[in-house]
Amino acid sequence: MLARMTPLSLTPTFSLLLHRHRRLVHRSLIDLPFSYSSPHCFSPKPTSVLHFHFLYRPPHATTTRSSSPSFTPVAAAGGALLQDAGATAAVLAGAYCLVLAFETLTEREVIKQNLSRKLVHISSGLLFAISWPIFSTSKEARYFASLVPLVNCLRLVIYGLSLAPDDGLIKSVTREGNPEELLRGPLYYVLILIFCSLVFWRESPVGVITLAMMCAGDGVADIMGRRFGSVKLPYNQQKSWVGSISMFIFGFLISIGMLYYYSALGYFQLDWMSAIQRVAFVALLSTVVESLPTTETVDDNISVPLTSMVAAYLSFGF
Length: 318
What we know:
It contains ten helices and six strands, in the order H-E-E-E-H-H-H-H-H-H-E-E-H-E-H-H. By secondary structure, it is mainly α. The chain has a two-stranded antiparallel ribbon with strand order 1-2. A two-stranded antiparallel ribbon has the order 3-6. A two-stranded antiparallel ribbon has the order 4-5. The relative contact order is 0.10. The N terminus is likely disordered. 64% of the residues lie in helices and 6% in strands. It has two domains: 119 residues, no CATH class; 115 residues, no CATH class.
């Protein structure tokens, strides 16, 4: 029986065994930590990525295309447009209600004018920065967000030039109740908000650190300094040790909180040991600049955010 078998009669059996062997080899290659790239080489299979830098900005999430024939890039753009328009309207309404609330409290003498001014200074900028994630991932989102401080900028110019009266606004955001004050500190403040939203936006720690130091650091320093600042700085009798220490502590803590907020949402990842040291450096440098006797020459709403911006840029990069 075996003598009658020829090589031709073994061909089907041999082909079947060879086919099964190739399938086993293919399956074993899939299970290996390599991916097949060419008939002659293997390339490492991307399993996990380790980020050794203190700052890692993940790529923008790509939009998943639907299998439905009604899904088009135009429809996606229209959805982003509606989202950004709705977010702009919501943030603008929130900002108006916030200022209106402090105007009412000031007019009714529930809180003093200086306290109202600083509470607006602290809360409005921080709430604006916190609202950025509700905007879409489109390239135009930052421009929609910047419309909020731009509207406030136009409002300050109108009332600062006395083109229209608004006693409540003037009492809540000025030191002495002079409309022309709106064209200085408050105007510089909203210009910084516009700049940070347009240039840095959500993908860079520089913008959120700048706003944290300008809003929380500088704002709390004034409140604490007026209330408890009996011991003045030796080189500036207008500033106190309590105010400067408060600026450093609150500017540092709010900056870390803002970084954690955006890091948790996935906009960037940080090596926290290194980031904490860098934020402390930014807070210290901004505190020193704020304590200098240069208020009459350069407004704090210019010197503090610019110092924070440059220091954060040198520490974290763009």
